[in-house]
């Protein structure tokens, strides 16, 4: 198992096919998966947590079903960058999952991801009914998309004629 923290210089994922992104919470885990080219992230599922052992088994089954080659887990840090108690729980869960699956594990800073997910749903006109069922998936997509974008490096915008 390989674990890379956000403070390490990120090494490009050599096989970008099907990376799984996770937004790990106490009650739910949002799951996203990349396309085969590693360009875009799509929502997959929200796991309503039952117990840690069964949760690990369920997510491990999803990694096999979607043929994931790596896992990106969101790390909810304090604004200062320090580990929050939830970040420590997320790390422990993700590391156990990586050990079970044998997949490389990457952590991605997810500060303000939940806020951004709510904003996306608000902007799209998604009502408050049923929001809990999808908010974690949207957060997982944002975590994974941020990671995928960072793998490709900075995007240069075309110069505008003034």
Terminal Cα span: 51 Å
Find the CATH topology. Answer: Nucleotidyltransferase, domain 5
Strand content: 15-25%
For the record, the CATH architecture stands as 2-Layer Sandwich
Quickly give the structural class: alpha/beta
> What would you call the shape?
globular
Domain tally: 1
Spatial strand order of the main sheet: 1-6-5-2-3-4
Largest sheet: 6 strands, mixed
What is the tally of beta strands? 6
**On the 0-100 scale, what is the average pLDDT?**
82
Rg, rounded, reads 16 Å
Order of helices and strands: EEEEHEHEHH
| Uncertain segments | none
Name of the level-1 CATH class: Alpha Beta
Account of the 3D structure:
The chain is built from 4 helices and 6 strands, in the order ββββαβαβαα. The longest helix is centred in the last third of the chain and has 22 residues, at 131-152. α3 (113-123) packs across α4 (131-152). A 6-stranded mixed beta sheet has the order 1-6-5-2-3-4, with helices on both faces. It has helices spanning 52-65, 85-101, 113-123, 131-152, and strands spanning 3-4, 19-24, 28-34, 41-48, 70-75, 105-109. The protein is 40% helix and 21% strand. A hairpin with a 6-residue loop joins β3 (28-34) and β4. The protein has a single domain (3-152), classed as Nucleotidyltransferase, domain 5 (2-Layer Sandwich), CATH 3.30.420. It is α/β, with parallel strands linked by helices.
